[in-house]
TrEMBL record:
PROSITE patterns: GHMP_KINASES_ATP. Pathway: Amino-acid biosynthesis; L-threonine biosynthesis; L-threonine from L-aspartate: step 4/5. It is found in: Plastid. Transmembrane segments: none annotated. This is Homoserine kinase. It comes from Fibrocapsa japonica.
Length: 427
């Protein structure tokens, strides 16, 4: 090889080797810096762990891990969530001029669950409350002639309680009520008014309840009503069981099989709760108490497991239905027997009466879309009407369903969000 060419080749090789060496040094330097940064972050995480409240506890193998420094994207997500929550709080805390609330009818007791069990059914009351120059109230529906059209109305009582909780004076308001819940028939019309008033008042006042969970509103409603059996399902829907813990009211949802229908015989005459409660004894025999304890447990187990054939035993009662049937509602027992004999899974006196509620099962949907052998709703309704006729009691039969959702705000002015609207299924 020519000496000149050899020297050029050696020079190129030397330059290439130098470039490779430089690239390696740079790469190593960057990696060293990265490792150093990771070690520093690791030390910060360890310091954070040592300084955390968890690190001061005696940790076992099953204890929660020491928290680590969140990554940047986690920080950003946390900041966004805090911003979103603050916007939601600000939005709810804004006073409003007008609100519309829908509340379902409810059926209390379900037989043995006196003052503690209730369920929501697909019959609704709708109330609109708006700021005005002076007080006014318009009422459309059953009971319009019997209800007080003044501030003693339970709807107004609920609104007043909400404003008091907000520490504000109640302004002049206009009330517009449209109720499809029969008045004083044992279907929770008073609870619907209380719940509707409380929610409407909180929205108008722009007040969020300080609460330990979902129960704050339940406690306000139960204090007005006196017990949670109607107000709990009116608020939360489904079948609810409520108790008083000694400090406050609390409730839980009872699992319910899908497709349960409600067949109601609603007499034309009203039942006054105070009068109907007056026939009950202050003390009950131990055997009756034992009977009801077993029936409540049996009913909840039947609902939770979907063993609907056991409902007919679970809705039996010894504490209030026999006395009320004897002194107030002679049609009660004949209609219960007629409903069960016609194929109902169970039947009982709804609330304080006089409505008789029968529970049936089948594929969820309108009875006219089902095969003949899939439903017994119409047969149960016909049997109840025939039994009522024999008892000399006039009334109507309604076929509806048990619903899982409770009270809803369907309209607010200003709206809760310019971009997100809740669709409630109204046409």
């Amino acid at each position: 090889m020519d000496a000149k060419i050899r020297n050029q080749f050696i020079g190129l090789a030397t330059v290439s080797a130098a470039l490779v060496a430089i690239a390696y040094i740079r790469s190593k330097s960057q990696n060293d810096q990265k490792v150093k940064k990771q070690e520093e972050e690791g030390n910060e995480r360890e310091d954070l762990g040592r300084n955390s409240s968890w690190a001061n506890n005696d940790l076992t193998d099953n204890s929660a891990p020491v928290p680590l420094m969140p990554h940047e994207h986690e920080k950003r997500m946390s900041q966004r969530m805090q911003k979103f929550q603050s916007e939601v709080i600000d939005e709810v805390s804004q006073e409003r001029n007008k609100v519309t609330v829908r509340v379902p009818a409810t059926s209390a007791n379900l037989g043995p669950g006196y003052d503690c069990l209730g369920m929501a059914v697909d019959m609704w009351s709708e109330v609109t409350v708006e700021r005005a120059d002076k007080f006014s109230m318009e009422f459309e529906g059953d009971g319009a002639a019997d209800l007080p059209i003044n501030e003693e109305n339970l709807l107004c009582v609920g609104v007043k309680a909400a404003f008091q909780a907000a520490g504000k004076q109640v302004p002049p308001l206009k009330y517009t009520c449209k109720s499809r819940i029969p008045y004083a028939r044992g279907l929770g019309s008073s609870s619907a008014a209380i719940v509707g008033g409380l929610i409407a008042g909180l929205v108008l006042a722009g007040h969020q309840l300080p609460c330990w969970g979902k129960e704050a509103l339940l406690n306000m409603a139960s204090e007005i009503e006196g017990h949670p059996d109607n107000v709990a399902p009116a608020l939360y829907g489904g079948i609810q069981i409520g108790i008083h813990s000694g400090e406050r009211w609390t409730s839980e949802r009872v699992p319910c099989p899908p497709g349960l229908q409600a067949v109601l015989f609603i007499p034309n005459t009203v039942g006054i709760t105070k009068e109907v409660r007056g026939v009950l004894k202050d003390e009950v025999p131990r055997k009756d108490a034992t009977f009801n304890i077993g029936r409540v447990a049996w009913l909840i187990n039947a609902l939770a497991t979907g063993n609907i054939d056991n409902i007919k035993f679970g809705v039996q009662d010894a504490l209030h239905q026999p006395q009320r049937g004897k002194h107030c509602f002679p049609h009660m027992q004949p209609l219960i027997e007629a409903a069960v004999n016609a194929g109902a899974n169970g039947a009982y006196l709804s609330g304080a009466g006089p409505t008789i509620m029968a529970i049936t099962s089948g594929v969820s949907g309108d009875m006219f879309t089902q095969r003949f052998n899939e439903r017994v709703d119409s047969e149960v309704g016909d049997a109840m009407l025939a039994a009522a006729k024999k008892c000399g009691v006039q009334g109507q039969v309604y076929i509806t369903r048990i619903i899982e959702n409770g009270a809803q705000v369907t309209y607010a002015e200003p709206n809760f969000s310019r971009d997100v609207l809740r669709y409630h299924g109204d046409v």
